[in-house]
C-alpha cells in the first residue's frame, strides 16, 4: 500500500496553479530539494494548463523513487488529444495549450506513458535527484581471485564496488555515483551481482535494469582484476549468477546495447548492430531466458524484407502480418527519452494515428536540429498500431538496426548516426 | 461500475507472479516455425503409450458415461494401489496430475510467511506454487547435480513447513538411495513435512532406490508422490497420487479437491496397475534410447548426464535457447534448460526411435551452424 500524496483537479489554467502548489509542497514535504520541487511543480502546471477541457478530472500523484521523483498524471477520459506531449509539435505555436504539454515533456528527465483501464492514459514524469560530487576511493592493490559464487551484495559492498569501478573508469556509466546506485537498487530499478575475493572484497560486478515490459538490459561487467584467467572467471560467475537470479520470473531475456569488451560473448547471440557517431558499429547482444514459442510480428511494408530476413536468420517462429492503418485519423504522438550528455534520443510510440509517419519524421528532424547525434526508435512489433510510425522513421533516415526477440512482441530498434 | 480497483483485491504475492504460459499447440508451432511436423521431446512422456489393459479399457469406454460424474475420491483405484503397495487406501489421495497434489500439500501445511525448502535446479512447480501462495521458496543449490542433504537441512528453519525432494531429480536424473533418504528423514526429525516426488520412480532399476512406502512407516512426516503421466503413458488424462501416514493423509484430504480426477483417467489408471510387462518394455526402450543419445554426445563431444528416468541432459557449446529455436525450425522440440538454471544445457526426452533420429540429425546441424 503506497501512501503517495494525490489530488484530482479539473483541467485548464484556472486550477493549474493549485496543482503546481500542491505538487511543490508535497515534494518539499517528501524531502526533495528546491530545484527538484520547482521542476515538478512546473510540469504539473503545464500539463494541467494544457489539458483539454473535456479531459475530466485529472489525477496527480507524487511518488518518491529515491533517485528520482515521479509525477504521475492520470487522464481517465478515453479519447483525448494529447498530441502536445509530442516534442516535435513545437511548431503549432498558435495552439497555446499544446505548448504546455510540450514544455512539460521537456522538463522531465524521462517521460513514460502507459494506458489505464478503459481507455485512459497515465503520463509519468521522472525528475532525477542531484547527488553531491565526490572523489571515489580507488581499489586497493592485491585483490584476490573470486571465492564462492557471485551474490546479491549488501549496500556497503555494492557501494565499494561502484567507487572502485568509478575510480578506474570501469563498467560504463551505470557504475558511477555510489549513492545513486544504492538508491536505484533500493527502488527496484537496478539489480546487481558482485563477486568477492577470499577476503570478501569486491572484485567485479554486473548490473541490470528493466528494458521494456519483459526484458532486462545488462550493464557492465566492471572487473577489478588484471587481464587474465582470474578476471574471465569473475565475468563468467557474474553472468551465471545473473541468469540464475532472473529465471522463473517474468523476465524473458537480457539485452546488451553497449557490450563491454569484458562481457563473455558465449551464450549470447548477436541480434543486430548499432552505428556509432564515428561510423563504426558495435553488436547488440541478446540472451533469451525462456523458450520462444513463436508469436505474431506486425510488420509494415517498408520493413518487411529486413524483418523477414532477420526473423529467419534468428530462427524465430513468427507469423509475419501486415497491420491495418490506425483507426484514429490524426493526433499521433511519440514519446522521447533523451540523454543529453551523450547526445542520444530514443523515440517510442505514444499514440498511433493516421498521421504517425509524418509525426515520426517530424520528431527525427527536431532532434537532429537540436544536435542529437544518436537518434533511435523502438517499435514493439507485437502491437499492430506501432508499425504506422515506421514509414516516417525510415524516410527520415533511420534504418533497422536490431531485432530483440520477445515472443509477446519483438522489439525493433531503428537507428541513425549523424 | 465506475471504479473497479483490481489491484486492491489481489494479494501482493499474486500480483508479483507472472503467469506460466504453456507452449501453443503443435499446429500453431508448425506454422510459426515453418515445419510440416513436430517431434515433441520436451515433456518426458512415454513413447510406448499406456499399457495394454488401459488401452482396451479406453477402447471399450462408452461415450455416454461422459455425462456422469466420476466417483469422488477414486475408491477403486485407491484400493488397487493399496493392494499393490500394501498401504491402507485411506492413506492415498488422487489428484489431477501430481501437479495438483503439490497444491494440496502446500495448501494443507503452509500459510503466507512460511517457507518450503527445495533445490534450485529441479522441477519448477514447487517453487511456483509456493511463490503465488505467499510462501517463500528456499532454493538450495544442487551439489554434483544432486540434492544436497546437508545444505537442505541447514536451510530448514522454524517457518519451514515442507521440504520437496525430487527423487529421481528432474532434470539431472540423480537420486538418493533408500539409506540416504532414511538418514535425511532422521535428521529432519519431524520438523517439517518431507515430500519425495517419485514421478520417475518406476524407471529406477537399482535395488538401492528407496522403498518410500516402507520408510513412511518409520517417518510419519514423509509424503510420497507418484504419477500416471510418466511410466504409465497417461499424461493426457492428468492423474497422479500421493501416499502418506494416516494423520498426514487425513490433513491433506481437507485441502484436496474431490471429483477433480476424471472418470476415464481413474479407470485407465486402475487398468494400468501394475503392469510389469509394460514397465519392463518401457525400461528397455529407455536403455536403448539413452545409449543412442550417449553415442551422439560422444560423437559431438558433448557432456551428457542422467541415467534414470525417460530423459537426459546435454551440455551445448551454444546458448540453449538459441539451440531450442533452431531445433524447432527443424521440427524437433527439446527443453532449453536456462529456466531450470542450467544455461547452456538441453534436456531431451527419450522418445520414439524416429524422433530420436530426427533429434540427432537436427542437433548435429544446429551445432555445425555454430
Ligand atoms: C518431478 C515431477 N513431478 C511432477 C510432475 C507432474 O506430473 P503430472 O503430470 O502428474 O502432473 C512432473 C512432470 O513433468 C515431474 O517431472
Automatic annotation (TrEMBL), chain A:
<protein>
    <submittedName>
        <fullName>Uncharacterized protein</fullName>
    </submittedName>
</protein>
UniProtKB/TrEMBL annotation, chain B:
<dbReference type="InterPro" id="IPR015424">
    <property type="entry name" value="PyrdxlP-dep_Trfase"/>
</dbReference>
<dbReference type="GO" id="GO:0004400">
    <property type="term" value="F:histidinol-phosphate transaminase activity"/>
</dbReference>
<dbReference type="GO" id="GO:0000105">
    <property type="term" value="P:L-histidine biosynthetic process"/>
</dbReference>
<keyword id="KW-0808">Transferase</keyword>
<keyword id="KW-0032">Aminotransferase</keyword>
<dbReference type="InterPro" id="IPR015422">
    <property type="entry name" value="PyrdxlP-dep_Trfase_small"/>
</dbReference>
<keyword id="KW-0663">Pyridoxal phosphate</keyword>
<comment type="similarity">
    <text>Belongs to the class-II pyridoxal-phosphate-dependent aminotransferase family. Histidinol-phosphate aminotransferase subfamily.</text>
</comment>
<dbReference type="InterPro" id="IPR004839">
    <property type="entry name" value="Aminotransferase_I/II_large"/>
</dbReference>
<dbReference type="InterPro" id="IPR005861">
    <property type="entry name" value="HisP_aminotrans"/>
</dbReference>
<feature type="modified residue" description="N6-(pyridoxal phosphate)lysine">
    <location>
        <position position="230"/>
    </location>
</feature>
<keyword id="KW-0368">Histidine biosynthesis</keyword>
<keyword id="KW-0028">Amino-acid biosynthesis</keyword>
<comment type="pathway">
    <text>Amino-acid biosynthesis; L-histidine biosynthesis; L-histidine from 5-phospho-alpha-D-ribose 1-diphosphate: step 7/9.</text>
</comment>
<protein>
    <recommendedName>
        <fullName>Histidinol-phosphate aminotransferase</fullName>
        <ecNumber>2.6.1.9</ecNumber>
    </recommendedName>
</protein>
<dbReference type="GO" id="GO:0030170">
    <property type="term" value="F:pyridoxal phosphate binding"/>
</dbReference>
<dbReference type="InterPro" id="IPR015421">
    <property type="entry name" value="PyrdxlP-dep_Trfase_major"/>
</dbReference>
<feature type="domain" description="Aminotransferase class I/classII large">
    <location>
        <begin position="40"/>
        <end position="362"/>
    </location>
</feature>
<dbReference type="Pfam" id="PF00155">
    <property type="entry name" value="Aminotran_1_2"/>
</dbReference>
<comment type="subunit">
    <text>Homodimer.</text>
</comment>
<dbReference type="InterPro" id="IPR050106">
    <property type="entry name" value="HistidinolP_aminotransfase"/>
</dbReference>
